[in-house]
Amino acid sequence: MNKRLIILLIVACQLTVFMSRAQNPVPQTLDSLQTDSIPPPLYPFLSNDSLISYYVVEDTAKYTYGMICSDLDYFLKTYPDLVHDQPMGKSEFGLELRTVRIGKVIPNKRSVFLVGNIHAREDYSSKLLMKFLNVYLLAIDGKSPLYPNAKQLLDSIDIYITPVANPDGLKIAHNDLFGIEHVFAMVKDSIFLEDSYNEWKANGIGIDLNDTFDDGNFELKKGGVVHTKPASEGYKGLYAAQAKETQALQNFVLAKRPLITSSFHTKGNIFFWADAKTHALFKNVDTEIVQKAAAVSGFRVASISKNPADYGCGLENYVRSKVGLIGVCVELSRGDKTRFQHPDNQFNKEVWERAWQLPYLYVENAVIYGSRIEENARLYMGN
Known about the structure:
With 383 residues, the protein is α/β, with parallel strands linked by helices.
Protein backbone atom coordinates (compact mmCIF):
# COMPACT_ATOMS: atom_id res chain seq x y z
CA MET A 1 0.00 0.00 0.00
CA ASN A 2 1.22 3.53 -0.82
CA LYS A 3 2.99 5.09 2.21
CA ARG A 4 1.10 8.36 1.89
CA LEU A 5 -2.22 6.48 1.78
CA ILE A 6 -1.31 4.62 4.97
CA ILE A 7 -0.53 7.91 6.71
CA LEU A 8 -3.82 9.40 5.55
CA LEU A 9 -5.74 6.39 6.88
CA ILE A 10 -4.05 6.73 10.27
CA VAL A 11 -4.87 10.42 10.35
CA ALA A 12 -8.48 9.71 9.42
CA CYS A 13 -8.81 7.32 12.36
CA GLN A 14 -7.38 9.88 14.74
CA LEU A 15 -9.71 12.52 13.33
CA THR A 16 -12.67 10.31 14.24
CA VAL A 17 -11.62 10.65 17.87
CA PHE A 18 -11.21 14.42 17.44
CA MET A 19 -14.67 14.84 15.94
CA SER A 20 -16.19 12.84 18.79
CA ARG A 21 -14.61 15.20 21.31
CA ALA A 22 -15.84 18.23 19.36
CA GLN A 23 -19.44 16.99 19.35
CA ASN A 24 -19.34 15.86 23.00
CA PRO A 25 -17.31 18.48 24.85
CA VAL A 26 -16.31 18.22 28.48
CA PRO A 27 -18.98 19.96 30.62
CA GLN A 28 -17.74 23.25 32.02
CA THR A 29 -18.75 25.77 34.67
CA LEU A 30 -18.30 28.92 32.63
CA ASP A 31 -18.79 31.67 35.19
CA SER A 32 -15.29 31.26 36.58
CA LEU A 33 -11.88 31.07 34.97
CA GLN A 34 -10.92 27.57 33.91
CA THR A 35 -7.26 26.96 34.75
CA ASP A 36 -5.90 23.87 33.01
CA SER A 37 -9.31 22.26 33.50
CA ILE A 38 -9.16 20.43 30.17
CA PRO A 39 -6.15 18.24 29.33
CA PRO A 40 -4.58 19.49 26.09
CA PRO A 41 -5.42 16.99 23.35
CA LEU A 42 -2.51 15.40 21.56
CA TYR A 43 -2.55 14.78 17.81
CA PRO A 44 0.63 12.82 17.03
CA PHE A 45 0.02 12.89 13.29
CA LEU A 46 0.80 16.62 13.30
CA SER A 47 4.37 15.86 14.35
CA ASN A 48 4.84 13.68 11.26
CA ASP A 49 3.08 15.91 8.80
CA SER A 50 2.49 14.15 5.49
CA LEU A 51 1.34 17.41 3.89
CA ILE A 52 4.52 19.40 4.31
CA SER A 53 5.44 19.18 0.63
CA TYR A 54 2.13 20.88 -0.25
CA TYR A 55 2.45 23.86 2.08
CA VAL A 56 2.75 27.32 0.59
CA VAL A 57 2.70 29.24 3.88
CA GLU A 58 5.90 29.88 5.84
CA ASP A 59 5.29 28.49 9.32
CA THR A 60 8.78 28.22 10.84
CA ALA A 61 10.28 31.70 10.34
CA LYS A 62 9.26 35.34 10.12
CA TYR A 63 6.16 35.64 7.94
CA THR A 64 6.04 39.17 6.57
CA TYR A 65 3.17 41.21 5.16
CA GLY A 66 4.72 40.93 1.70
CA MET A 67 4.95 37.14 1.97
CA ILE A 68 1.33 36.96 3.11
CA CYS A 69 0.18 39.10 0.16
CA SER A 70 2.19 36.92 -2.21
CA ASP A 71 0.62 33.76 -0.80
CA LEU A 72 -2.87 35.24 -1.05
CA ASP A 73 -2.19 36.09 -4.69
CA TYR A 74 -1.06 32.49 -5.24
CA PHE A 75 -4.27 31.10 -3.74
CA LEU A 76 -6.39 33.53 -5.78
CA LYS A 77 -4.65 32.41 -8.97
CA THR A 78 -4.59 28.68 -8.15
CA TYR A 79 -8.17 28.41 -6.87
CA PRO A 80 -10.12 31.03 -8.87
CA ASP A 81 -13.46 29.31 -8.25
CA LEU A 82 -12.92 29.08 -4.49
CA VAL A 83 -10.79 32.03 -3.35
CA HIS A 84 -12.07 35.51 -4.14
CA ASP A 85 -10.54 38.89 -3.43
CA GLN A 86 -12.67 40.96 -1.06
CA PRO A 87 -11.74 44.65 -0.85
CA MET A 88 -11.76 45.80 2.78
CA GLY A 89 -10.05 49.17 2.84
CA LYS A 90 -6.62 50.59 3.58
CA SER A 91 -4.47 51.20 6.62
CA GLU A 92 -3.37 54.59 7.93
CA PHE A 93 -0.26 54.30 5.74
CA GLY A 94 -2.21 53.19 2.67
CA LEU A 95 -1.58 49.44 2.76
CA GLU A 96 -4.36 47.10 1.70
CA LEU A 97 -6.21 45.23 4.44
CA ARG A 98 -6.05 42.08 2.34
CA THR A 99 -9.15 39.94 2.71
CA VAL A 100 -10.31 36.87 0.84
CA ARG A 101 -13.61 35.03 0.64
CA ILE A 102 -13.51 31.25 0.49
CA GLY A 103 -16.66 30.03 -1.17
CA LYS A 104 -18.43 29.48 -4.44
CA VAL A 105 -18.50 32.07 -7.21
CA ILE A 106 -21.90 33.36 -6.06
CA PRO A 107 -21.59 34.37 -2.38
CA ASN A 108 -23.68 32.71 0.30
CA LYS A 109 -25.79 34.86 2.60
CA ARG A 110 -24.21 33.28 5.68
CA SER A 111 -20.56 33.69 6.58
CA VAL A 112 -17.83 33.47 9.20
CA PHE A 113 -15.19 36.16 9.66
CA LEU A 114 -11.66 35.23 10.84
CA VAL A 115 -9.31 38.10 11.72
CA GLY A 116 -5.61 38.10 12.57
CA ASN A 117 -2.90 40.57 13.51
CA ILE A 118 -5.04 43.29 15.04
CA HIS A 119 -2.01 43.65 17.29
CA ALA A 120 1.22 44.11 15.35
CA ARG A 121 3.63 41.83 17.19
CA GLU A 122 1.14 38.95 17.40
CA ASP A 123 1.93 37.36 14.05
CA TYR A 124 1.18 33.83 15.22
CA SER A 125 -2.40 34.85 14.44
CA SER A 126 -1.78 35.56 10.75
CA LYS A 127 0.28 32.38 10.44
CA LEU A 128 -2.58 30.33 11.86
CA LEU A 129 -5.15 31.81 9.50
CA MET A 130 -2.93 31.48 6.45
CA LYS A 131 -2.00 27.89 7.26
CA PHE A 132 -5.66 27.12 7.89
CA LEU A 133 -6.49 28.58 4.46
CA ASN A 134 -3.71 26.52 2.87
CA VAL A 135 -4.83 23.24 4.47
CA TYR A 136 -8.54 23.94 3.92
CA LEU A 137 -7.90 24.25 0.19
CA LEU A 138 -5.81 21.07 0.28
CA ALA A 139 -8.74 19.33 1.98
CA ILE A 140 -11.05 20.40 -0.84
CA ASP A 141 -8.47 18.99 -3.28
CA GLY A 142 -8.50 15.68 -1.40
CA LYS A 143 -4.90 16.09 -0.24
CA SER A 144 -5.64 16.65 3.46
CA PRO A 145 -7.92 14.75 5.83
CA LEU A 146 -7.78 17.46 8.50
CA TYR A 147 -11.00 19.24 7.50
CA PRO A 148 -13.22 16.39 6.27
CA ASN A 149 -16.28 18.46 5.31
CA ALA A 150 -14.41 21.41 3.84
CA LYS A 151 -16.08 21.23 0.44
CA GLN A 152 -19.60 20.52 1.68
CA LEU A 153 -19.57 23.40 4.16
CA LEU A 154 -19.16 25.87 1.31
CA ASP A 155 -22.59 24.85 0.03
CA SER A 156 -24.13 26.93 2.81
CA ILE A 157 -21.50 29.29 4.19
CA ASP A 158 -18.61 31.53 3.13
CA ILE A 159 -15.38 32.11 5.04
CA TYR A 160 -13.90 35.59 5.09
CA ILE A 161 -10.29 35.84 6.23
CA THR A 162 -8.37 39.02 7.01
CA PRO A 163 -4.98 37.63 8.06
CA VAL A 164 -3.44 41.04 8.79
CA ALA A 165 -5.80 43.71 10.11
CA ASN A 166 -2.86 45.92 11.10
CA PRO A 167 -0.32 45.82 8.24
CA ASP A 168 1.47 49.05 9.20
CA GLY A 169 2.08 47.77 12.70
CA LEU A 170 3.19 44.35 11.48
CA LYS A 171 5.75 45.92 9.17
CA ILE A 172 7.09 48.06 12.04
CA ALA A 173 7.35 45.01 14.32
CA HIS A 174 9.18 43.11 11.58
CA ASN A 175 11.55 46.01 10.81
CA ASP A 176 10.17 45.76 7.28
CA LEU A 177 9.65 49.41 6.43
CA PHE A 178 9.77 49.21 2.64
CA GLY A 179 6.84 51.24 1.31
CA ILE A 180 6.07 52.99 4.60
CA GLU A 181 9.48 54.53 5.53
CA HIS A 182 8.57 58.08 4.62
CA VAL A 183 5.14 58.26 6.24
CA PHE A 184 6.32 56.44 9.38
CA ALA A 185 9.28 58.80 9.70
CA MET A 186 6.82 61.70 9.81
CA VAL A 187 5.06 60.37 12.94
CA LYS A 188 7.69 58.16 14.57
CA ASP A 189 9.08 60.75 16.98
CA SER A 190 5.61 61.65 18.26
CA ILE A 191 4.84 58.06 19.31
CA PHE A 192 6.01 56.84 22.71
CA LEU A 193 8.04 53.63 22.39
CA GLU A 194 7.35 51.38 25.37
CA ASP A 195 9.68 48.52 24.42
CA SER A 196 11.66 47.80 21.27
CA TYR A 197 10.20 48.22 17.80
CA ASN A 198 10.10 44.42 17.58
CA GLU A 199 7.42 44.50 20.28
CA TRP A 200 5.26 47.14 18.58
CA LYS A 201 1.57 46.43 19.17
CA ALA A 202 -0.34 49.49 17.92
CA ASN A 203 -1.13 50.58 14.39
CA GLY A 204 1.20 52.88 12.46
CA ILE A 205 0.07 56.07 14.20
CA GLY A 206 0.22 54.67 17.72
CA ILE A 207 -3.38 53.57 18.39
CA ASP A 208 -4.10 50.17 19.96
CA LEU A 209 -6.79 48.94 17.58
CA ASN A 210 -8.42 46.54 20.03
CA ASP A 211 -9.16 49.38 22.43
CA THR A 212 -10.99 51.55 19.91
CA PHE A 213 -13.98 49.63 18.48
CA ASP A 214 -17.23 51.56 18.89
CA ASP A 215 -19.21 49.24 21.16
CA GLY A 216 -20.51 52.07 23.34
CA ASN A 217 -17.83 51.69 26.00
CA PHE A 218 -15.07 53.95 24.69
CA GLU A 219 -15.34 56.54 27.47
CA LEU A 220 -15.40 53.79 30.11
CA LYS A 221 -12.54 51.75 28.67
CA LYS A 222 -9.53 51.60 31.00
CA GLY A 223 -8.27 48.01 30.88
CA GLY A 224 -4.96 47.92 29.00
CA VAL A 225 -5.06 51.68 28.38
CA VAL A 226 -1.96 53.16 30.02
CA HIS A 227 -1.04 56.10 27.77
CA THR A 228 -2.77 59.40 27.00
CA LYS A 229 -0.90 60.03 23.76
CA PRO A 230 0.11 57.85 20.79
CA ALA A 231 2.27 54.92 21.87
CA SER A 232 3.55 51.59 20.63
CA GLU A 233 0.83 50.05 22.81
CA GLY A 234 -1.80 51.07 25.35
CA TYR A 235 -3.29 54.19 23.70
CA LYS A 236 -6.94 54.09 22.63
CA GLY A 237 -7.07 57.24 20.51
CA LEU A 238 -9.10 60.42 20.88
CA TYR A 239 -12.46 58.87 20.02
CA ALA A 240 -13.99 55.52 19.16
CA ALA A 241 -13.07 54.07 15.76
CA GLN A 242 -10.55 56.83 15.08
CA ALA A 243 -8.22 54.45 13.23
CA LYS A 244 -8.87 53.66 9.57
CA GLU A 245 -8.29 49.96 10.23
CA THR A 246 -10.99 49.94 12.92
CA GLN A 247 -13.42 51.75 10.62
CA ALA A 248 -12.81 49.23 7.85
CA LEU A 249 -13.42 46.23 10.11
CA GLN A 250 -16.58 47.77 11.55
CA ASN A 251 -17.95 48.59 8.10
CA PHE A 252 -17.24 45.05 6.97
CA VAL A 253 -19.10 43.54 9.93
CA LEU A 254 -22.08 45.84 9.32
CA ALA A 255 -22.15 44.96 5.62
CA LYS A 256 -21.64 41.18 5.82
CA ARG A 257 -23.16 40.34 9.23
CA PRO A 258 -21.01 37.21 9.72
CA LEU A 259 -22.63 34.73 12.10
CA ILE A 260 -19.36 34.27 14.00
CA THR A 261 -16.42 36.66 14.09
CA SER A 262 -13.26 35.27 15.65
CA SER A 263 -10.31 37.55 16.34
CA PHE A 264 -7.01 35.76 16.97
CA HIS A 265 -4.35 37.14 19.29
CA THR A 266 -1.25 36.08 21.29
CA LYS A 267 -1.01 34.78 24.05
CA GLY A 268 -2.49 32.69 26.88
CA ASN A 269 -4.35 29.71 25.32
CA ILE A 270 -7.67 31.17 26.42
CA PHE A 271 -11.05 32.21 25.00
CA PHE A 272 -12.67 35.56 25.77
CA TRP A 273 -16.14 34.79 24.53
CA ALA A 274 -18.89 36.58 26.47
CA ASP A 275 -19.75 39.73 28.40
CA ALA A 276 -22.51 40.35 30.93
CA LYS A 277 -24.25 42.94 28.76
CA THR A 278 -24.89 40.67 25.76
CA HIS A 279 -24.43 37.07 26.96
CA ALA A 280 -28.14 36.41 27.58
CA LEU A 281 -29.12 37.26 24.01
CA PHE A 282 -27.35 34.18 22.63
CA LYS A 283 -29.53 31.76 24.64
CA ASN A 284 -26.66 29.37 25.35
CA VAL A 285 -25.38 29.12 21.76
CA ASP A 286 -22.15 30.94 22.65
CA THR A 287 -21.70 28.65 25.66
CA GLU A 288 -22.12 25.50 23.59
CA ILE A 289 -19.66 26.69 20.95
CA VAL A 290 -16.96 27.72 23.43
CA GLN A 291 -17.31 24.37 25.20
CA LYS A 292 -16.65 22.59 21.92
CA ALA A 293 -13.68 24.85 21.18
CA ALA A 294 -12.20 24.24 24.62
CA ALA A 295 -12.67 20.49 24.31
CA VAL A 296 -10.62 20.23 21.12
CA SER A 297 -7.90 22.74 22.00
CA GLY A 298 -7.43 22.43 25.74
CA PHE A 299 -7.63 26.24 25.99
CA ARG A 300 -9.03 27.84 29.12
CA VAL A 301 -12.41 29.54 29.09
CA ALA A 302 -12.45 32.99 30.65
CA SER A 303 -15.23 34.04 32.97
CA ILE A 304 -18.04 36.10 31.51
CA SER A 305 -16.66 39.64 31.37
CA LYS A 306 -18.61 41.88 33.75
CA ASN A 307 -16.97 45.32 33.72
CA PRO A 308 -16.96 47.22 30.40
CA ALA A 309 -14.10 49.37 31.69
CA ASP A 310 -11.99 46.21 31.46
CA TYR A 311 -13.40 44.33 28.50
CA GLY A 312 -14.82 46.99 26.18
CA CYS A 313 -13.84 48.19 22.70
CA GLY A 314 -12.49 44.97 21.24
CA LEU A 315 -13.67 43.67 17.86
CA GLU A 316 -15.55 40.82 19.54
CA ASN A 317 -17.35 43.33 21.81
CA TYR A 318 -18.35 45.46 18.83
CA VAL A 319 -19.80 42.44 17.02
CA ARG A 320 -21.91 41.38 19.98
CA SER A 321 -23.20 44.83 20.90
CA LYS A 322 -23.79 46.33 17.45
CA VAL A 323 -25.17 43.42 15.43
CA GLY A 324 -26.09 40.82 18.06
CA LEU A 325 -23.87 38.15 16.52
CA ILE A 326 -21.20 35.97 18.08
CA GLY A 327 -17.77 37.49 18.64
CA VAL A 328 -14.83 35.64 20.15
CA CYS A 329 -11.27 36.64 21.04
CA VAL A 330 -8.87 33.69 20.91
CA GLU A 331 -5.49 34.06 22.60
CA LEU A 332 -3.02 31.65 21.01
CA SER A 333 0.02 29.96 22.63
CA ARG A 334 0.85 29.36 26.27
CA GLY A 335 1.40 32.24 28.62
CA ASP A 336 4.66 32.90 30.43
CA LYS A 337 6.21 35.70 32.48
CA THR A 338 6.51 38.02 29.47
CA ARG A 339 3.89 39.74 27.32
CA PHE A 340 5.72 38.98 24.10
CA GLN A 341 5.19 36.29 21.51
CA HIS A 342 7.22 33.09 21.48
CA PRO A 343 9.83 32.73 18.67
CA ASP A 344 8.64 32.23 15.09
CA ASN A 345 10.17 28.76 14.86
CA GLN A 346 7.94 27.54 17.72
CA PHE A 347 4.69 28.27 15.89
CA ASN A 348 3.80 24.67 15.11
CA LYS A 349 4.39 23.51 18.68
CA GLU A 350 2.86 26.55 20.38
CA VAL A 351 -0.10 27.14 18.08
CA TRP A 352 -0.77 24.75 15.22
CA GLU A 353 -0.70 21.53 17.24
CA ARG A 354 -3.38 22.86 19.59
CA ALA A 355 -5.35 25.34 17.51
CA TRP A 356 -5.43 23.91 13.98
CA GLN A 357 -9.07 22.87 14.37
CA LEU A 358 -10.41 26.16 15.79
CA PRO A 359 -11.05 28.10 12.54
CA TYR A 360 -12.74 25.03 11.08
CA LEU A 361 -14.81 24.56 14.23
CA TYR A 362 -16.18 28.10 13.93
CA VAL A 363 -17.12 27.50 10.30
CA GLU A 364 -18.79 24.19 11.09
CA ASN A 365 -20.71 25.56 14.06
CA ALA A 366 -21.90 28.60 12.15
CA VAL A 367 -23.67 26.08 9.92
CA ILE A 368 -24.95 24.01 12.85
CA TYR A 369 -26.26 26.99 14.83
CA GLY A 370 -26.95 29.37 11.95
CA SER A 371 -30.71 29.63 12.34
CA ARG A 372 -30.51 30.11 16.11
CA ILE A 373 -27.80 32.76 15.80
CA GLU A 374 -29.83 34.66 13.19
CA GLU A 375 -33.04 34.49 15.22
CA ASN A 376 -31.30 35.70 18.38
CA ALA A 377 -29.73 38.59 16.47
CA ARG A 378 -33.09 39.50 14.92
CA LEU A 379 -34.71 39.69 18.35
CA TYR A 380 -31.78 41.67 19.77
CA MET A 381 -31.88 44.21 16.95
CA GLY A 382 -35.67 44.50 17.23
CA ASN A 383 -36.39 43.52 13.63
